[in-house]
Amino acid sequence: MQSLEGALTSLAASLLPGGRLVSWEPLRPDAAGADEEKALGYGSPVRITVQDEEGNVRRFVFRTEAQNEFGHERLSDRMAEALVSWELFNRMPDHVRAVDVGALNGAGRPVSLRGAGEPYLVTEWIEGTCYADDLRRVARDAALGPLDVARAEALARWLVQLHAERLDDASRWRRAVRDLVGAGEGIFGLVDGYPPETPAAPEERLRAIEERCLAWRWRLRGRPRRLARTHGDFHPFNILFRPGGDGLQLAMLDASRGGQGDPADDVTALAVNFVFFAAERRSAWRPALAVLWRRFWEVYLAGTRDPGVLDTAPPFLAWRALVVSCPRFYPGLGAPARDLMLTLAERALDHGRFDLDLPDRLLAEGH
Questions:
Q1: For residue 280, what are the contacts with CB-CB under 8 A and spacing of at least 6?
Q2: Helix axes 335-351, 263-276, angle to 10 degrees
Q3: 12, 152, 220, 280: which is deepest, by most CB within 10 A?
Q4: pTM of the entire structure?
């Protein structure tokens, strides 16, 4: 508790001119009575008494967010909750005022964010070629070179190593499953992002896909041992191949969704693109993109010895099919190609265990 007292002492000095911490005490959860005490709260509030340089005394409440299973598992969740409160409290009529928002740094000192505007992120620059460029070329030429196959194998091996770290945390697993279906970037959010009367994606079709995925949430929910370290957005526009060497050195962009989930998320995020890039160049499927599809899955399944990924793949594949079919992301996609991708999602969701031959059958049927 000494580190907390030090943090509160520093905070007091920033709240009032010449501010000095007089006292502090943890506040118990709200209670309606001795027999009805609230058992759980989202934060850990502390009441602090501060005296300014003129001897005036004021009281404040210092809050930290608790890490729990209610969408607060990640540091970014808890930071977002604090920023939402800062933004909302001072706009709400008759609400208690927020006077500061910040974070405790590694040394336990408060760092204020009250003057901050929109957040930003700075990353390093890495030279490389986007894997999507490879897939565009393969689709255009309907032909493969040895490096194309080697790169698909390298991507599968990279995921094998990443997914080897299993976590078995029921709370975080349920969060990942919940985000798959209900998050703004998940299935519900994607469906809401489709413009009205999108060709090959009428509202009733999207609603039916969404309802299938909701049923899948309950099939996935009780399988926390599948939780693994994941990239979270493993698609061809987030994968770079570095220059030089054997052409297989990788660099990744934009890891997301907490870095934890079902390995099927990452596998389908990439695999669906082998079908997607063939959707409008179908002559490229059998001689080229189907080879990459098959080889990627073969290397991954052999490396992980995890056939269970095929049992959980359908809703993740559906999610990714909704992404690549959405006009907000790919406005030039034609209706036949969109129909192919959504049919792939529908058939996968209905079948249960994912059948790796499904794209072959759909393309043969002319979808």
A1: 333, 334, 336, 337
A2: 140
A3: 152
A4: 0.86
